[in-house]
């Protein structure tokens, strides 16, 4: 008869920061995740995870349907919201430098039930983001192959609902990156750093070359007149566009997932988070300005808007280079998302929220192989079978929900753990975390109603799994 009180007690149990840090230090000394990453590695992980499908795929849709030439303003709004959240991530990652990211922060502030909910939401963010990027990768890869006369059968070229039976390239790239992530984190980070450098160089090339060919008249009016519906151009369109291109900023928080594998996390994690956001935002705004200055915004509703813009310049071979850059960018974004989800699963299994098998580390590489393989297989299946439109909407709202909890965690921990060392602290007291919460809520309001319904349905499914599976493990999920 005392089941309900015990259950309620376990659900409300918070995991003290001291316990989290002690467990991390103990595992590091024995068989935990290897600390081999530098600040530069973290910046590259953040940039690699951030600059992907957002800049190469969604920019055209956002300009053509919502923001018009004011697309750069949408990126600035989304960048401000991300910057506020990024500062909160930096404070938490430096204070709690362990695997788990938002899941771990929520466990320390709101208890085990809230931690499960956010962990389930992070599946929506990371795994679905990886699927979305893989589908975008497939589109660019097939376009590049077509330039050389190579084409897949239609049944293997896209998901059901888009004229095919299975998106084979999307599944293939997901599986290949999963194999890379089964190696030591340092090896994956080195490959990621090389690809990020190439990607940034190609994007800068587009900006420099494109700037010499822009037509300023295409920027007028900067904010097209509203069509009469919320989000259809006008300033509401700028807001709706910000909600859509917010997908472009998803990925920088992967840096916080890597904090447990960083040599000096108290210093390197804030540098990685803030550095990745600054680099990404500057590149996004520059690309948006050049893109809308090369092509009339209503003509940008295509799957490869940057390639279309390059075609207007008329430089032979440059379009091919852009497609290669897009493939590299999408590869690093998918790699970062898969990496982040694998570490989330590892952290949840370590806390007995998931089966213990997901917390096992390979003795040679000290990477969570089983967790990574499981995520890779599920992500490959989703990428092969689900259209990109549904995936993108789910990822955006799921991430915004997670970001609100990150900002809230900063406020709660300042009240409940005031003496805890904070190597980095968000400036301005509590003002910026509160602004971060409202900024994310504003972007969520700008998303369509059916996206909200999908979020509620996803969280409801997560709760059903938690209570269906977790009754036997609720006591073990509490602080030992």
Can you describe this structure?
By secondary structure, the chain is mainly alpha-helical. It has one domain: Up-down Bundle (Amino acid/polyamine transporter I), CATH 1.20.1740.10. Helix content is 71%, strand content 0%. It has 20 helices and no strands. The chain has helices at residues 3-12, 17-29, 39-50, 53-67, 71-95, 102-109, 112-147, 154-157, 168-181, 185-211, 234-245, 254-257, 265-294, 305-313, 318-350, 369-385, 388-416, 431-445, 449-470, 474-477. The radius of gyration is 22 Å and the shape is globular. The chain crosses the membrane at residues 38-59, 71-96, 102-119, 126-145, 165-182, 194-212, 232-252, 273-297, 317-340, 370-388, 394-414, 426-446, 452-470. This is Amino acid permease YhdG. Pfam families: AA_permease_2. Keywords: Membrane, Transmembrane, Transmembrane helix, Transport.
Helix content: over 70%
In CATH's first tier, which class applies? Mainly Alpha
Shape: globular
Number of helices: 20
Mean pLDDT: 79
Count of the separate structural domains: 1
Rg, nearest Å: 22 Å
Q: Helix-strand pattern, N to C?
A: HHHHHHHHHHHHHHHHHHHH
- In the CATH hierarchy, the architecture is Up-down Bundle
Q: What's the CATH topology label?
A: Amino acid/polyamine transporter I
Assembly category: single chain
For the biggest sheet, the summary is: none
Assigned CATH superfamily? Amino acid/polyamine transporter I
pLDDT < 50 runs, ≥5 residues? none
Instruction: Bin the strand percentage.
Output: under 5%
In whole angstroms, the N-to-C terminal distance is 23 Å
- Total DSSP E strands: 0
Main location: membrane
Protein name: Amino acid permease YhdG
Keywords: Membrane, Transmembrane, Transmembrane helix, Transport
Membrane topology: Multi-pass membrane protein
């Amino acid at each position: 008869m005392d089941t309900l009180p015990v259950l309620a007690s376990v659900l409300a149990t918070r995991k003290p920061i001291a316990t989290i840090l002690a467990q991390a230090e103990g595992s590091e000394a024995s068989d935990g995740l290897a600390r081999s990453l530098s600040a530069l590695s973290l910046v590259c992980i953040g940039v690699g995870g951030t600059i992907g499908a957002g800049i190469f795929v969604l920019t055209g849709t956002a300009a053509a349907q919502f923001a018009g030439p004011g697309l750069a303003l949408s990126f600035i709004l989304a960048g401000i919201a991300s910057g506020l959240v990024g500062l909160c991530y930096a404070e938490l990652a430096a204070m709690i430098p362990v695997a788990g990211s938002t899941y771990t922060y929520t466990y320390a502030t709101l208890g085990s039930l809230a931690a499960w909910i956010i962990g389930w939401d992070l599946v929506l963010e990371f795994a679905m983001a990886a699927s979305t990027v893989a589908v975008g990768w497939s589109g660019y890869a097939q376009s590049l192959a077509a330039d050389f006369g190579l084409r897949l059968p239609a049944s293997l070229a896209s998901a059901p609902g888009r004229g095919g039976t299975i998106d084979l390239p999307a599944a293939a790239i997901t599986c290949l990156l999963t194999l890379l992530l089964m190696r030591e984190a340092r090896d994956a980070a080195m490959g990621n750093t090389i690809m990020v450098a190439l990607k940034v160089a190609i994007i800068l090339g587009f900006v420099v070359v494109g700037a010499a060919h822009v037509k300023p008249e295409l920027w007028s009016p900067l904010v097209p007149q509203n069509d009469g519906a919320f989000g259809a151009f006008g300033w509401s369109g700028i807001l709706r566009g910000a909600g859509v291109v917010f997908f472009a900023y998803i990925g920088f928080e992967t840096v916080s997932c890597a904090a447990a594998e960083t040599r000096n996390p108290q210093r390197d994690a804030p540098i990685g988070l803030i550095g990745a956001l600054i680099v990404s935002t500057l590149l996004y705004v520059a690309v948006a300005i050049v893109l809308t200055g090369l092509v009339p915004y209503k003509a940008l509703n295509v799957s490869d808007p940057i390639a279309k813009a390059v075609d207007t310049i008329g430089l032979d071979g440059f379009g091919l280079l852009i497609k290669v850059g897009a493939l590299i960018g999408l590869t690093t974004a998918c790699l970062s998302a898969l990496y982040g989800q694998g570490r989330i699963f590892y952290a949840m299994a370590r806390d007995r929220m998931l089966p213990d098998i997901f917390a096992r580390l390979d003795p040679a590489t000290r990477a969570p192989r089983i967790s990574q393989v499981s995520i890779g297989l599920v992500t490959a299946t989703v990428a092969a079978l689900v259209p990109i439109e549904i995936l993108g909407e789910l990822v955006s709202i799921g991430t915004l929900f997670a970001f609100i909890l990150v900002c809230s965690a900063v406020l709660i921990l300042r009240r409940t753990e005031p003496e805890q060392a904070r190597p980095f602290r968000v400036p301005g007291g509590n003002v910026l975390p509160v602004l971060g919460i409202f900024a994310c809520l504003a972007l969520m309001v700008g998303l369509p109603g059916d996206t909200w319904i999908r979020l509620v349905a996803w969280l409801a499914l997560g709760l059903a799994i938690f209570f269906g599976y977790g009754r036997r493990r609720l006591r073990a999920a509490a602080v030992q």
